[in-house]
């Protein structure tokens, strides 16, 4: 089957596919790919829709740049709206894909296959095309609207949004609300995220007595490793059971804990002095104050010589209130209601750049307009149907205009 492209493919779809073909992969152990190509593409887009733009270097070595477009409002003194997205994507395993992962192949049903279709190059183009459409309709927002495209979100975000929120450029934006990424929903409904779990990457080191592999050595590192693993996975079982027992809970409402790396040993016949365990823990907001004590308990109960440290520990997470007295949320929800969209409110199960925004006191709503779509971010054969993509542009037209026109006395 050849790449299916109708004669009259919508311009927005063509731009989306062009953006997807940029191999902007970020990885924890390799330099990023084609970040400069993303900046060039976004520069072209800003010029096309007639928005002033800035390229902000938020980190010098290694170089990291935020691309910022600005649509000035009728009253630029009012707190502004930020439409945030990231231009990096995760690595791929091409041998497991039906189509080349950076070809942006479109099949006869309109499914577009490429890394980044859901996470989250679709949203970037939807923002841009929604602004284009609103401008063509003669609309001008009450409040200024900024569009930020940031690097490194897939590798903790510390050199991207993490640096940007601490910059003077960010402070001068005078923001009142941010929109950021969400997840697909497999049903007719749309998912909206008002908070997220915090990533804690804990490394636990167990030390003990060494010796010959033929003997019954006591007080070994391995014995302590076993106790730590039992405690950690016991905690994991408890959290999983909570999720199964309560139908009102979603994944983001509980804390997950997964053992991801075991290190130690020098050779088969030597009992090692030291072994290390790495855990990926995603802490739900209501456990933030107790999780440290939980990890400490695992170590204490394992015995002496067991310590822990964090490769990553985000503790400043907050939630955005979804109540009637929050004018931003009321405007967002009113726009959705006007389009007969059914909304499911959740805590995001993983980590996004919204955590940096919320930690700076900025309300943030995580939303990607993808319903009737399998959740395939980071997965093989990540894809998005062009009809869902195009519908998302119209949805953003309504949402952007609603939040950008929140009255001056509202916020």
Features:
Aminopeptidase; Alpha-Beta Plaits; 2 domains; four-stranded antiparallel sheet
How does this model look, in words?
It is a single chain. With 411 residues, the chain is an alpha+beta fold. 30% of the residues lie in helices and 24% in strands. The chain has helices spanning 11-20, 35-49, 121-136, 161-164, 168-171, 221-245, 291-302, 327-338, 354-359, 386-404; strands at 53-59, 64-71, 80-86, 105-106, 111-113, 145-150, 175-180, 190-196, 198-207, 211-212, 256-264, 270-271, 274-283, 306-313, 343-348, 364-367, 383-385. It has an 8-stranded mixed sheet with strand order 1-2-6-3-7-16-8-15. Helix 1 (11-20) runs antiparallel to helix 3 (121-136), helix 3 (121-136) packs across helix 10 and helix 6 (221-245) runs antiparallel to helix 7. 45% of the residues are buried. The model has no long low-confidence stretch (mean pLDDT 96).
């Amino acid at each position: 089957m050849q790449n299916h492209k109708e004669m009259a493919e919508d311009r927005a779809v063509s731009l989306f596919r062009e953006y997807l073909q940029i191999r902007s992969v970020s990885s924890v152990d390799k330099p990023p790919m084609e970040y400069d190509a993303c900046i060039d593409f976004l520069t072209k887009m800003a010029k096309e829709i007639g928005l002033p733009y800035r390229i902000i270097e938020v980190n010098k070595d290694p170089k990291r740049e935020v691309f910022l477009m600005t649509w000035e409002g009728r009253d630029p003194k009012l707190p502004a709206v930020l439409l945030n997205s990231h231009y990096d994507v995760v690595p791929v395993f091409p041998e497991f894909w039906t189509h080349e992962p950076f070809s942006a192949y479109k099949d006869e049903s309109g499914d577009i296959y490429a890394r980044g279709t859901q996470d989250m190059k679709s949203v970037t183009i939807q923002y841009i095309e929604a602004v284009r459409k609103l401008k063509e309709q003669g609309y001008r927002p009450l409040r200024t609207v900024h569009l930020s495209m940031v690097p490194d979100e897939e590798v903790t975000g510390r050199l991207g949004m993490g640096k940007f929120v601490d910059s003077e450029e960010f402070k001068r934006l005078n923001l009142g609300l941010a929109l950021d990424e969400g997840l697909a929903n497999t049903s007719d409904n749309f998912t909206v995220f008002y908070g997220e779990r915090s990533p804690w990457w804990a490394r636990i080191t167990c030390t003990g007595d060494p010796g010959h592999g033929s003997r019954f050595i006591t007080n070994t590192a391995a014995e302590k490793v076993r106790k730590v693993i039992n405690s950690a996975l016991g905690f994991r079982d408890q959290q999983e059971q909570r999720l199964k027992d309560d139908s009102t809970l979603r994944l983001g409402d509980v804390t997950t804990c997964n053992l991801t790396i075991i290190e130690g040993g020098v050779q088969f016949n030597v009992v090692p002095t030291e072994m290390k365990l790495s855990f990926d823990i995603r802490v739900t907001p209501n456990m933030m104050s107790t999780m440290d004590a939980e990890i400490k308990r695992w170590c204490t109960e394992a015995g002496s010589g067991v310590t822990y440290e964090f490769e990553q520990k985000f503790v400043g997470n907050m939630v955005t209130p979804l109540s009637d007295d929050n004018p931003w949320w009321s405007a967002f929800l009113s726009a959705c209601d006007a389009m007969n969209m059914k909304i499911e409110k959740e805590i995001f199960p993983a980590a996004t750049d919204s955590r940096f925004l919320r930690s700076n006191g900025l309300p943030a709503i995580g939303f990607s307009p993808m319903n009737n779509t399998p959740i395939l971010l980071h997965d093989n054969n990540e894809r998005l149907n062009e009809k869902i993509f195009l519908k998302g542009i119209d949805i953003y037209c309504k949402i952007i205009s609603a939040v950008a026109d929140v009255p001056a006395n509202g916020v």
